[in-house]
Write a structure and sequence with these properties.
- Two copies of one chain form a homodimer.
- With about 400 residues, chain A is of the alpha+beta class.
- Chain A is about 35% helix and about 25% strand.
- In chain A, the strands form four sheets. In chain A, strands 3, 4, 5, 6, 7, 8, 17, 18 and 19 form a nine-stranded mixed β-sheet that branches.
- The longest helix of chain A is centred in the C-terminal third of the chain and has 22 residues.
- The radius of gyration of chain A is 23 Å and the shape is elongated.
- Chains A and B meet through strand 10, helix 8, strand 11, strand 12 and strand 13 of A and strand 10, helix 8, strand 11, strand 12 and strand 13 of B.
Chain lengths: ~400, ~400
């Protein structure tokens, strides 16, 4: 099958117009711009010969007849979002559906999930569709302004259930949202797995004291405990982690947080991500042991908050293999297998069917910002790799 | 002259009620509790026959007629302060002023300086009164919440200048705020000198990014820069400092401070203290060089805020001699000469007149915390030593 580059790019820019703001978009879930975009998408789906169906959450499907492969992503954006994040995967799916139909290829259905960006939760639309989150529970979720999802989704009209059993698999194309492909100059990333996440608050309680009269050797300084912990976990992670493993102390609050006082308390977030559940567990052991050791040695108390997290999801071998073969045909040796450090709708959909993902480069690794962009040649390559893989899966 | 123990303790507990929180107080400069406490103090000053005068900064004076010795400290507290810090020196001054008046002794004026605890700077009220800091410059200072001193001091009513030339000297009584007297079981410390202090905000600006998709080696993480800086300055200080030198990172704010985002910016306070001005300067060079080196190596920008600070100050020999003689009379061989590791308003006042200080023990060395306390017998001894020294200075 042959994708129509001009038609694909025209639709990508057509979607960009909804909620356009500078180079980016402001199209949060259920907003006027989001719903207008979905109305326009529904027309494009119909024009492509697909049957439009919206479910109760507002997930928008363009359905082929009979069993089909499902392609897509989401068209809602962050409060200040880039133009490609999610939108690219939806329009690429639409173009492949059209191209396949024109070429007499396999049946392709298209989806734009709702609230992937988490106005209300985390990948809320696909979480409900996959059964991971009950609609009644989701309805209670509130956005930062106190609006409930139940209220927000009243703008969804003509809802009906979409049976997942009609789909043979799901492939999501997305921008990488990180710097790897751009840095090494490669064109395509085939995702091996979506990493698992662990997130935990840790508290060191020491002794708040005067910063002038307390000798250094008598201090029980909570900031110094965090710094020592940070340094030791880095050392101890070294033999355990891979170059794809990440960990972050992104939140820290000190008490009382005054320049003249030795901090008595520090609460901080420790988040770590990896594709291997055993590695995540090994890191957790290092984190707990190190924090306890640092606390003991320095005369502080340590407490661990509840650990939240999501399990890693491996991509389906057959779908992933088709993407790899397609990438090797189209951009030989300019692609790589890589984990997805970000969460995606595919994580939820994996509960229902085989899933796979492919990435195109993000210029400068920038995402979730108006400046987000990808070279036009890379956008084209992405949709071509996707189309070729879909055709091969059908042929195989 | 004879101090009235019951009256002294009653007023000390009267002041404690303003901003009371557990055993401590929450009475930061210009807060509602602080201003209410100052209103109450003004009434107590008037009842003691003193003329109340507040200056533009909100420093509160109770003035005797003609030339007088000035006694006092401050009544603002840390965000979470002890009940005695500062408050003790103000109420001791008030009691000595009353006792001296009743005994036909020397004229004694009383002061409670504003913002000694540094909501806006370092001993801000006495710094402005002493001419060390211009009011117009002080007005630009911001607290951690972004409020300017100019805004905060609008609550000060009926301001007028207080001429320092009316005072023959200044004596500040204070809790030690450290463990020395309590540890050795002594009752009084006569201060030899107050250590110098340097305080500076440092900002690392890196790249805010996705905590899942940004590999460790491509991060420009502002928290990691602070941690690296912290470790390197500790190493580099080692050959320069003495066991009495202290340094503290007591304030740190990260942006955007979310567990899923690599921190793009960190603003933190670096404070260091020592009795030797050259050592303070050597430490400043290490701090600036290290921050620049860390920023360069990790691809961040670094910015240094204005450095506030005070030079080390020796106490006046005559005033100090009177305190030593008084201590030896009242608690023979249970007192010592010692430096002050904490900063005090006396440092600023020394620009205007002779100054001296005396300490009473801090139980467990704890201060700047709700648990701060001193045995009642030691509080009484302190005010008695102060009264006797004031009488002796007049007689001499």
């Amino acid at each position: 099958m042959q994708v129509d580059r001009a038609r694909f790019l025209a639709d990508l820019h057509g979607l960009r117009a909804f909620g356009a703001c500078g180079a980016g978009v402001v199209r949060p879930a259920y907003s006027e711009a989001d719903m207008a975009a979905r109305g326009w998408l529904a027309q494009r789906f119909e024009a492509a010969g697909l049957r439009v169906q919206t479910d109760a959450m507002g997930n928008l499907f363009g359905l082929a007849d009979g069993p089909s492969i499902l392609l897509g992503s989401h068209s809602d954006s962050q409060p200040e979002g880039g133009w490609l994040d999610g939108a690219l995967g939806v329009i690429a799916a639409l173009e492949v559906a059209r191209a396949s139909r024109e070429a007499g290829g396999p049946a392709v259905s298209v989806v734009s999930f709702q609230d992937e960006e988490g106005r209300f939760g985390v990948t809320t639309g696909s979480a409900v569709w996959s059964g991971h989150l009950a609609l009644a529970e989701a309805d209670k979720l509130l956005d930062h302004g106190g609006v409930s999802l139940a209220q927000a989704r009243r703008v969804v009209a003509g809802a009906g259930a979409v049976d997942p059993s009609q789909f043979t698999g799901f492939i999501e194309m997305h921008i990488e949202q990180g710097p790897v492909l751009d840095t090494v100059g490669e064109r395509i990333g085939v995702v091996s797995d979506i990493v698992g996440i662990r997130d935990m608050k840790i508290t060191f309680d020491g002794q708040q004291n005067h910063a002038g009269t307390t000798p250094m050797h008598l201090r029980r300084d909570a900031f110094q405990a965090v710094a020592a912990f940070n340094r030791l976990v880095e050392e101890r992670f070294a033999p355990v982690v891979t170059p794809a493993t990440v960990w972050t102390i992104g939140h820290l609050s000190m008490h009382p947080n005054a320049s003249s006082i030795v901090p008595g308390r520090a609460v901080f977030s420790m988040q770590w991500r990896d594709g291997d559940a055993e590695r995540l567990a090994a890191m957790e052991r290092i984190i707990r042991d190190t924090a306890q050791e640092v606390a003991k040695r320095r005369g502080l108390d340590v407490a661990f908050g509840p650990m939240s997290g999501l399990e890693p999801v491996a991509m389906d071998a057959r779908l992933r293999g088709a993407l790899e073969a397609s990438a090797q045909d189209l951009v030989p040796d300019a692609w790589r297998v890589m984990p997805s450090g970000a969460l995606h709708d595919a994580t939820n959909v994996a509960r229902l069917m085989p899933v796979a993902m492919l990435f195109v480069p993000s210029i400068g690794g920038i995402s979730h910002a108006f400046e987000e962009d990808t070279a036009e040649a890379d956008l084209i390559t992405g949709v071509q790799v996707l189309a070729r893989a879909v055709a091969a899966l059908h042929a195989g």
